[in-house]
Amino acid sequence: MLHRQVRLVGTAGAVNWDRFHVMGTTQQLSFLHADACSFAAAMAKTEVNSVERLRAGQALFEEAAQAFGGRVLDKVGDSILLAFPRADAAYLAAETIARKTSEAQASDLHPIPFLYRMGITSGRAQTRGDTLYGHCINVAARISSLVAKGNIGIGAMAWPFVQKFAAQRPQRHRRLFAKPEEPFVDFVEIDADGNSVEKAAARDHN
How many secondary structure helices (H) and strands (E) does the chain include? Predict the structure, then answer.
């Protein structure tokens, strides 16, 4: 079972998923955006195996979404976007995925899913047609592009609801430009392998 017995106390209550795609619907949600690491390089070597590995990883996201009350909103290329009613649910799903993908790297599992960079934010998003819009979604994508392989970045709005669940993991507060023309991205990076946060600190210092 993926589900962990915890009391979730995050940013919003239950999501009315039946109304989620109604035109103009606005809801307070937490978003998990993830990119598969080294997917493009793997595709250049063998497309069939790479797609199988990608699908294996996507299955983990789908399982985690179901276990923690979320929903997969979009899958484009090697990226995936999930929504959750609370930030702590999004984090626990991400933590589960990070653990399972890391364990798979040392196993005989086939196909072995890719490691992922993941970003989590909370905020309001609005449905227009089949598309969901919200600055918080863009921020989640920016964060996922800034963390180290296998790590999880939690945006400033979501962090207070996630902090106690991540207390035992190495972490570093980071405030970086994603792009020169955009504002700072303020987030906490949670380490997955025990040393990548320290590497990030060295990069920031240099």
Answer: 6, 8
